[in-house]
Write a structure and sequence with these properties.
Length: about 450
């Protein structure tokens, strides 16, 4: 569940209400106030930020231990910050300070939430295809070096997940992983976003602000969509990579940059170099160790494993237990997936919403993903092994009565036949699913899915 709540801890009840009113003016989520010692009643996984009033500063260590991945800010006071406090907010609290705090808090949560990183890693780096085996091998080889890495690949292939994996496998793992999308920030704001600015550096700069390089100090800065970076910024980035120093906008004071840079793009940078849209010297600075993420259509054999993992992740989140039949999985494996893993994740979430406790067959897939030529053969890489063959399988019944003159709905007829046989097997096995599955020559989990699909009675 995403963090939504801002918690204010303040001993002075009146001051706590004042802080609540100020924060609520900017924050769309819930803003709560708790007295010292009473904050543990709140759910940690729902917290976006904790603001600690000066009158309750002695609570800082306990709060930091209770919610280590939630950014903690202290209002007022002087001297050294208590352990666990991310930054100090000066009194009186104002609009600019809070905006800056929310910004820093977002970065902090992104860099310290291993569950989110591990989930993305599981989504994208799952697969036994040669291409994915190579990607994992390259990550292991370069992760603990200081080399700049350039990740190439189409949108939705998981480039940020690779960057996160590089960081968490490196010696910088205890420091921040700071992502920034160079294509999503207007060119005139990108310099301030990367390098920060001083108060009064430009119109609207009413307070000083750290940039992403400072926030990533000692850690990893991930520059996504580097191919969309404007040429003037490319020059400034090249200087930072060469000299390991930079200045905030509006300042001439150099700041050292102990930062590992990982960049990514879906564009052909060599083509952009030829068109005069990307600097060749910056390309060679970034392209020390390239890693190319394959598109999903290039590793279609991984789709069953990926889909199974995505459904399992949604199940762990309490979203529902949804399964795919071999025919549905085969159809998904034939689809070209222009949106890559991101599109597959969206489809799995859609199916879980539509069939939260069901089994999705070919006919239940959205029409776009019903690929012609699909058969019912289980695709490669299915996680569950095939059942042992039945020792003496009975011959299939023959249609003694013949086909009715008016024809039949074969799919419906077979479904009714399957349902009848499953119910008979359950009755004869006294409701014990394992015994019934053996009689029917199928996996126990497959039978459980069909029992759920048809709403039959079984013994738990």
């Amino acid at each position: 569940m995403p963090a939504e709540q801002v918690l204010i801890v303040e001993a002075d009840a009146e001051k706590g209400l004042q802080l609540q009113a100020i924060v609520a003016f900017l924050e769309t989520g819930e803003v709560s106030v708790a007295a010292p010692g009473q904050w543990s009643e709140h759910a940690v996984d729902e917290l976006k930020m904790i603001i600690l009033g000066g009158a309750a500063a002695e609570e800082a260590a306990a709060l930091a231990a209770w919610a280590p991945r939630v950014p903690l800010f202290l209002v007022g006071g002087e001297g050294e910050l208590p352990e666990g406090v991310l930054a100090r907010l000066d009194e009186p609290l104002n609009h600019a300070q809070l905006l800056s705090a929310f910004h820093r808090g977002d970065i902090y949560r992104q860099s310290t939430n291993p569950h989110e990183s591990n989930a993305r890693l599981a989504q994208v780096l799952v697969g036994n295809s040669p291409a994915m085996v190579m990607v994992r091998r390259l990550i292991e080889q370069v992760a603990d070096s200081e080399a700049n890495v350039l990740i190439l690949g189409e949108s939705g292939t998981g480039k940020e997940v690779v960057a996160s994996a590089l960081h968490h496998l490196s010696s910088r793992r205890e420091r921040a992983f700071v992502p920034v999308n160079c294509g999503a920030i207007p060119g005139d704001l990108l310099e301030s976003e990367l390098f920060g600015h001083e108060k009064g550096a430009f119109t609207g700069a009413i307070t000083a602000r750290q940039g992403r390089f400072e926030l990533a100090e000692g850690g990893t800065l991930f520059l996504d969509e580097i191919g969309d970076m404007p040429m003037p910024m490319q020059v400034k980035l090249l200087r930072v990579l060469q000299e390991r120093t930079f200045e905030r906008v509006g300042s001439n004071k150099p700041i050292s940059a102990d930062v590992r840079v990982v960049a990514a793009t879906h564009r052909d940078l060599e083509e952009r170099i030829g068109a005069g849209e990307f600097r060749e010297d910056l390309f060679y600075r970034l392209n020390v160790f390239p890693i190319e993420m394959p598109s999903l259509r290039e590793r279609a054999e991984d789709i069953p494993l990926l889909a199974t993992e995505l459904l399992a992740r949604l199940e762990r989140q309490g979203r529902g237990t949804t399964r795919l039949t071999p025919a549905a999985m085969s159809s998904l494996s034939r689809y070209p997936w222009p949106g890559n893993v991101r599109e597959l994740a969206n489809v799995m979430e859609r199916l879980v919403i539509m069939y939260p406790e069901g089994v999705v067959d070919y006919a239940e897939l959205p029409a776009k993903y019903q690929m012609e030529g699909t058969d019912t053969t289980p695709p490669l890489n299915m996680a569950e092994p095939a059942p042992a063959p039945v020792a003496a399988a009975a011959p299939a019944p023959s249609p003694a009565a013949g086909l009715p003159a008016g024809g039949i709905d074969l799919k419906e007829h077979l479904a009714q036949l399957e349902q009848a046989f499953i119910q008979q097997a359950l009755d004869e096995a006294d409701g014990v699913v394992a015994h019934a599955a053996k009689r029917l020559g199928m996996r126990r989990t497959t039978l459980v899915e069909k029992v759920r699909k048809y709403g039959l009675q079984r013994e738990e």
